[in-house]
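Work Package 4 report. The design task specified in the project plan requires that, given a folded chain encoded as structure tokens, an amino acid be chosen for each position. We show below one input record used in the internal validation round.
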């Protein structure tokens, strides 16, 4: 990673992003430089992203919300602390016609990402589309083509690690060779719970618990492991070539269709690297685990903090890889590691929305964009092909965008 890129993103931490009113860029109608946003999908994630946006009233103003479930619209409306009620819609196409909306945040079931994204783009709105970008490979490739034809619109995909100062630092460490030759990546995202949401009416089961059903969802791979898969794609500027996987409904025999226990193994032949990505709903001991292992050391990450552990033959007294932490002398914890950053980072959504605002002003390509989003969406689809099809899946040259 070029140093100037890292400096740019650590500047985001300090906060001072200004919206440049660049001629020809959509969505700069407010004289104060505030972007008027709407949220399609007012479930937990939609309300979560909206809550972060509401903390930056100098950048974003919510003007409309949309959901097919009335009670979710009522829940979201309670977040409005102004005297002006937000417009509410149950049909996203009507929201897309709203002239008081500059940009749209889409946080709906995965099978609806593509059709709603298409409608938002054709309505000339900027788009923040939650991960995973699309439900299948064909949709990913088609969405890339559509976005290419609409260069004035900003499209950002919700893979937040591409904006975190912690993960930027790890990418820098990899690029500068601090970890040496990296041969393995071990990732987990575990829980000891059934992953269900409460259902007020049995008729709403599939709408609310859509993650459990193949018609709507990519399961644990799409909803959780896609973040880690995307980071490896980004950190190494690559994608896997071979996808093998196994799993099953091993814990909760409750009518679900997507697996509650999965293990995916990805092979990156150009890097000489294996990626192991797993998730279970039957044990929470590891919780979130992300380890990148090289001949000189290991990085162990949480979502907001991380440690660097040098290999024994690299460790000489306390003098290890200069510059890894930015400190003049490494301060070791009892396990022989050093913090990668001195303090935990903010929630990744905060960094991502700040950059979305900035890119609307500049018209530049976001770090998590239509091309990187498509690459990860293809990876998720191929991993699920291997998982549910019980055979290896491979990357094809037509997936390169």
């Amino acid at each position: 990673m070029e140093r100037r890129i890292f400096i740019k993103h650590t500047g985001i931490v300090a906060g001072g992003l200004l919206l440049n009113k660049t001629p020809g860029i959509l969505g700069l109608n407010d004289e104060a430089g505030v972007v008027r946003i709407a949220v399609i999908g007012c479930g937990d994630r939609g309300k979560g992203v909206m809550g972060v946006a509401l903390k930056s009233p100098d950048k974003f103003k919510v003007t409309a919300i949309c959901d097919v479930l009335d009670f979710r619209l009522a829940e979201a409306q309670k977040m409005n602390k102004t005297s002006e009620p937000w417009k509410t819609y149950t049909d996203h196409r009507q929201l897309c016609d709203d002239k008081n909306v500059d940009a749209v945040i889409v946080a709906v079931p995965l099978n609806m990402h593509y059709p709603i994204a298409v409608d938002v783009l054709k309505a000339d709105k900027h788009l923040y589309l939650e991960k995973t970008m699309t439900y299948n490979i064909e949709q990913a490739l088609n969405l890339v083509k559509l976005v290419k034809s609409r260069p004035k619109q900003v499209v950002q995909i919700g893979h937040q690690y591409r904006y975190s100062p912690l993960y930027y630092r790890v990418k820098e460490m990899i690029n500068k060779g601090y970890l040496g030759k990296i041969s393995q990546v071990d990732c987990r995202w575990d829980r000891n719970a059934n992953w269900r949401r409460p259902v007020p009416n049995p008729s709403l089961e599939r709408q609310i618990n859509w993650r459990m059903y193949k018609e709507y969802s990519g399961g644990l791979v799409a909803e959780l492991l896609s973040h880690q898969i995307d980071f490896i794609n980004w950190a190494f500027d690559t994608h896997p070539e071979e996808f093998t996987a196994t799993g099953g409904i091993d814990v909760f025999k409750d009518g679900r269709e997507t697996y509650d226990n999965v293990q995916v193994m990805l092979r990156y032949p150009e890097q000489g690297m294996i990626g192991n990505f797993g998730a279970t709903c039957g044990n929470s001991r590891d919780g979130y685990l992300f380890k990148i292992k090289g001949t000189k050391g290991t990085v162990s990450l949480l979502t907001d903090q991380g440690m660097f552990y040098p290999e024994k033959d690299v460790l000489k007294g306390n003098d290890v890889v200069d510059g890894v932490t930015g400190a003049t002398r490494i301060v070791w914890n009892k396990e022989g590691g050093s913090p990668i950053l001195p303090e935990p980072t903010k929630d990744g959504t905060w960094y991502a929305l700040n950059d979305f605002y900035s890119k609307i002003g500049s018209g530049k390509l976001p770090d998590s964009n239509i091309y990187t989003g498509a690459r990860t969406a293809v990876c998720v689809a191929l991993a699920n092909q291997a998982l549910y099809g019980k055979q290896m899946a491979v990357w094809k040259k037509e997936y390169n965008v």
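The domain at 3-161+350-368 is CATH 3.40.50.720 (Rossmann fold). Validation will be extended to a larger panel in the next phase.
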